[in-house]
Design a protein that fits this description.
The protein has 14 helices and seven strands. It is an alpha/beta fold. Among the domains are: about 160 residues, P-loop containing nucleotide triphosphate hydrolases (Rossmann fold, 3-Layer(aba) Sandwich); about 70 residues, Helicase, Ruva Protein, domain 3 (Orthogonal Bundle), CATH 1.10.8. Helix 8 crosses helix 10. The radius of gyration is 24 Å and the shape is globular. The structure holds adenosine-5'-diphosphate and magnesium ion.
Length: about 350
């Protein structure tokens, strides 16, 4: 049972809307898809959806599709019977069954192998399935909440996510924007985390440093609320304001340098574009945007590939797209490694 109330903190309009939507949707048995970068609070919202549902006294079971090897994921989800395969020495109950009439939280759904996506879709349609190697039907009663930090529309275009499953999962879609796009939430979050820490460690002396707060407001928080929480814990325990400020400043400078170097390349690009339009051949704004976006994407992908010694997994991770989406883009943009590198 998960009876502790998940608290979603924030005063931006976005967060207020998300809180309202979460309460509204919670009590209905609709599938919900939560999207947003890592650390924005997707799991928190999933837990809140469970909290506000009639399923509160039933289990909340989480499965991280990215953390489990693809070939084990199916048995983790659906379980197996004794003797289903070599090594299956006893029955194993899957997460769907463990969740009973509660909520199953499919985290990082974008990483689910396409073959398993087909099976999941089937289960969501039929609301029943067999354990691997089993003959007795098991009812799938749990409410499904899924989350991803990937852009599933792009994954669908790249052929790595099933469109029909996407529609099935996303009856309701909750998008949580990155923290840098809702800076009004930073201060309330800081205050909330500090108050929680003070409750937990009542004997710890602690006072704030205004400069760090200012820095917190300008920093871009690539790791979102999770990163903010980590910094606050560290400052609370160590009181090392000065080194935190230095660290944030360095990260900020690196990021600005990267963005401005991309910016200046676009400026060069701009100069090379022939502005000799005549009225009959002006491309649509969308065509221009798509073509420029593609050029910039190609440039950045090539750069990161070089930087990582053509490590495609690492490049995909750094650019926050899936491995398959990267391969697709490389093919589409005609990017291939130099001779001698595979
Ligand atoms: N709006 C919020 N209010 C309070 N805590 C939050 C909020 N958003 C995120 N957190 C906290 O930040 C951490 C990361 O959130 P999590 O839900 O795990 O993110 P995600 O699943 O998107 O990676 C957790 O400790 C979570 O409780
Ligand atoms: Mg998470």
């Amino acid at each position: 049972m998960n009876l502790e109330k998940p608290v979603i903190v924030g005063k931006s309009k976005t967060i207020k809307d998300i809180i309202r939507l979460t309460k509204q949707v919670g009590e209905y048995d609709l599938n919900v898809l939560i999207t947003g970068e890592s650390g924005v609070g997707k799991e928190l919202v999933a837990r809140a959806l469970h909290f506000y549902s009639k399923r509160i006294s039933e289990p909340f079971v989480k499965i991280n599709c990215a953390a489990i090897p693809a070939d084990l994921l199916e048995s983790e989800l659906f379980g197996y019977e004794k003797g289903a395969f070599t090594g299956a020495n006893s029955v194993r109950i899957g997460k769907f069954e463990l969740a009973k009439g509660g909520t199953i939280f499919l985290d990082e759904i974008g990483e689910m192998p396409i073959s398993l996506q087909a099976k999941l879709l089937q289960v969501l349609q039929d609301r029943r399935y067999f354990r691997i190697g089993g003959h007795k039907e098991v009812k799938a009663m749990a409410r499904v909440v899924a989350a991803t930090n990937k852009n599933l529309e792009a994954e669908i275009a790249a052929g790595s996510f099933r469109e029909d499953l996407f529609y099935r999962l996303s009856t309701i879609c909750i998008h949580i924007p990155p923290l840098r796009d809702r800076k009004e939430d930073i201060l309330p979050l800081v205050e909330y985390f500090i108050s929680q820490l003070k409750i937990k460690y009542p004997n710890k002396e602690f006072s704030w440093d205004e400069d760090v707060l200012e820095m917190f407001k300008t920093y871009h928080w690539p790791g979102n609320v999770r990163e903010l929480y980590n910094y606050i814990q560290r400052i609370f325990v160590l009181g090392d304001f000065i080194s935190v400020k230095q660290e944030l400043q360095e990260k900020l400078t690196q990021k600005n340098e990267l963005v401005s170097s991309i910016g200046s390349r676009i400026h060069d690009l701009d100069k090379s574009i022939d502005i000799n339009f005549n009225k009959s051949n002006i491309p649509s704004l969308k065509e221009i945007k798509d073509s420029v976006t593609k050029k910039v994407e190609k440039m950045v992908i090539e750069k990161i590939l070089k930087e990582t010694n053509w490590n495609r997994k690492e490049t995909a991770r750094l650019l926050k797209i899936s491995y398959r989406a990267l391969l697709y883009k490389m093919k589409d943009m005609d990017i291939s490694p130099p001779p001698g590198i595979r």
